[in-house]
Structures are given as C-alpha cells and as structure tokens.
Amino acid sequence: MRHSESLTKTLNMFVVVLLIPVVAVNAFTESSSKRVLEISERYMSPKTYLIFDPCNTNKPGNRTVSCAQLRRQGHNLTTQYNITPHDKFLVWCDMETDGGGWTVIQRRSKTEGGGTEFERSKKDYDDGFYNSHSSSYWIGNENIHALTTRPNSKQVLRIEMTRNTKEKIIVHYSTFQVGSKEDYYQLTIGGYLSPNGSDYDALKHQNGGRFVIADGSYHCDSCSRSRISGGWWFTIRGCMQSNLNGRKLNEVRPHTKGLGITWYKRGDSSSYQYVYESVEMKIRDADYGFCTGEMAK
C-alpha cells in the first residue's frame, strides 16, 4: 500500500513536470502571436511614398517649377507665367519650338537697338532684369541656379541666334548647370549638337568658368576689360569665344573682337564681328520627350 502511494506521488510529479513546459510553450506562443500581430499592424499598414518623380508632377503645395511642367499641364500659349522653383518669379515660356516647354533665360530682341542695355551691375545679373520696351531680359543667376539644380532637374540648353543677314544659328547642349552664388555661378556645359555643323561649339571654352561682369574685379591675361562687355562666364583660355550678353551692335565694327554679342565659329576669325539681330537662350527638362510621350512617336 505504501508502495502504491509512493508510485502515485511520483507519477503526479512527473505529470506536473511535463505540464510546466507545455504551459510555458503556450504562454510563449500566445505572447509571440500578439507580438507578431503588433509588428504587422505597426509596419505593414499600407503607406504611399513618392520615391522618384522624374517628371516633376508632384511638388509640395502643387508648385509649378518650370515651363516644361506647365506645358505638360496643358498650357500651350507662348507668354509669361509664374513659376516657383524656389521663390516665385515671372518667366517667358516658349510653348511652340520643338514641342514647347522651354523656359527662356535670356533674350536679346530685335527692338533692343544698339547700346549698353546689358551693361549691368553684379546685383542686376544675380537678381535678373527686364526691359519692358524691348522685352530683352536676363532671368537672373539665382533663378538659373535654382532651375538647373532642383531634384530630377537635368536641363538641356537651346540657343537661337539670328544674324543681321537673316542666317539662323541653333545650338543645343545636353548638359547645362549653373552653380551657387558661393561657387560664383560656375558653368557646367557639355553635349554639343547643332544643325549648323560642328564649328559652332563656342560655349565649350567657358565650361567650368565663373560668372563675371566686365566692369567688376576681373583678371584675364588673354583679354582686357576694354574688349569685353556685359556679364558672362569669362575664362582665361577662351574669354572671347562667346558672350551673348555683350553689347548689341547694329553694324560691323572693326577691332571690336569680344565687345559685342559674340559666338565664335571655329576657323572663321570674321565671326568675332558678326552682328546679331536677336538671341534667345532657353532651357528644358532633359527627359521632356520621355515625360510627354514624344519619344514613343
């Protein structure tokens, strides 16, 4: 009898020992299940993140940052619009040329006349200026910097120059960027292309150049202040190869190399004296064709 009671106690202890791990496992499983549920609820809730917006269609506050964006929104009239890549300002948008969407950053109009309209101060060039009578203008270095350095904002540059002989020169650069004020609005340019041939790549000599005004603190061994005008990306190795902000001369003037609007044609020294009736510099998103579906046509 005693032996039977002892055996019963032993078996009961064994059952208790077996039950303890089972209870522990159940408790762990229940706790883990709740924890997994908490994690799932916390980290697997549906959320929407805008990781990449190459076409600049979703800007905070529905901001309009370029003429290319306006054109994609259905604006097709070539006129002035407000854009806000940083602070709001007024620009001319070319909505017709080569599919439209061009932000005009510089214009020398036919009605500007000869003179020194672009002989301006550093502040004028930084902030921008506009002549309401001739519609000639410079959009401003700060604005060009903002337009060419915003996220997903690689820009192409198109330059249209019309000589007084009615010859039209068009050049494209697939890379165009202007640095900050602290970097003296340093120019990055590349990827030349022109229907006029390979001899009009004048701006390549200004690649890496800082923006300087002719009447400012300027040092250049290859030219002097008396032979340049306006504000441009003047460089020591090619300070007179191009200057679209030079004086607008109405006739050929000998010995004025680099003084007027200048765009050097390789191998043609007479191109330094070309007289230009009008000039426009305009930029557009490099992926504009992709974003508008033009590439698929």
TrEMBL record:
InterPro entries: Fibrinogen-like_C, Fibrinogen_a/b/g_C_1, Fibrinogen_a/b/g_C_dom, Fibrinogen_C-term_domain. Residues 1-27 form the signal peptide. PROSITE patterns: FIBRINOGEN_C_2. Keywords: Signal. One of its GO terms (cellular component) is extracellular space. Residues 58-287 form the Fibrinogen C-terminal domain. The keyword Signal applies. NCBIfam families: GGGWT_bact. This is Putative ficolin/ixoderin.
